[in-house]
Amino acid sequence: MAEKARKKSKKVRNLIIGLVFMLLLAAALVVLLLTTSAPEEEAESSAYESTLVDLVVSEADDINELTVENAGGGFDIIRVSEATEDEDAVYGIEELESFLTDESELSSIIDQFANVSAMRLIEENAPDIAKYGLDDPTYVVTTYYDDGTTHTFTVGDTLPTDNGAYMMIDDDPNVYSMGDTKMSRLDYTPLHFMDLNVIDEWESYTDDDGNEVTAPTIEYLQVTGGTLEDVFRMEPIDTEEESSLASSYGSTYRIVSPIESDFRVKTNAEGGDDNAVYTTGLQSLEALSVAAINPTEEDMAAYGLDEPYCTIEFSRDGTEHTWLVGDAVTAEDGTAAHYFYSEDQPVIYVVADSSLPWISMNLDELYTPQQLLPYIDDVGQIDLMVYGN
Asked: Going by C-beta distance under 8 Å and a sequence separation of 6 or more, which residues neighbour residue 304?
């Protein structure tokens, strides 16, 4: 009996020892996992954070030319003047040398390709670049440096994430990914670099007497066509006596065609003058895009400018201007617009309808509703007839 009890006790002891051993083994395994997982996570994190690959590091002012080949024909930007201590280098496009260009757009694309980092390396020593669209690239960008160095960026298909494209550089056999920022201007043609100001923006100034001049002098505004059946013309009130009455009648302009009337001040909910847009709109006008430069007669006809939908003539600070509004068009962003031509320079623009209040003028909103005689103080007698009496 005692022998049997002793054997049972020994069995229990062995079970306890085995259980303790298993617990110790499990604890050691947990410790091992905890101590090895942290470096792996750190390594993964470090690898993720360091996916950018520097491909080109240079000074933008050292680039003397940049060319882009694309489906639209591309463009060639050249340095017009070198950088100085006080000024950055200036760039231009040869076929636009007689036009105003957007210098910030030209400088921006130079800056973008002076320093190029890929978002990540896609494939080393890629044996089949066709699957990335790099055998027949969408864009080819080449930068030329003063020291004779060149870099060529070949850009293929869009990434599956739609936030960039596949890219190769020079003779590097690796495939990289290019970000959206670098691609933002690669679809451009020379016309995309045109300055879009149709007329120089007028700015307030202080005259010789120390008075602040807050608006230009509009000697006249004449509108033909659009929603008008007759020619509309307005001129400023030009005598001191008449000007003193402007506060009574609201506007400093008078309509002289198709009838004579004071110009109506149409007050909106905010207390502003909705009709002021017809003259303040002459202070600046910016187009959405440029459709053509140096247009031929055929071009003018193609855009509806040989027989304009509307003609706007005006004089601002002694300089006369004529604007022609042609056919309606929907801009790339869906904005309702019209083709537009300014006789100040041979450019056909696309201008949003919201910037062209003259094409939809309503005469009923322009004549003053004021019925009082303008010079009531000069009236000596009023005759009133009611039913013949």
From this structure: 326, 327, 339
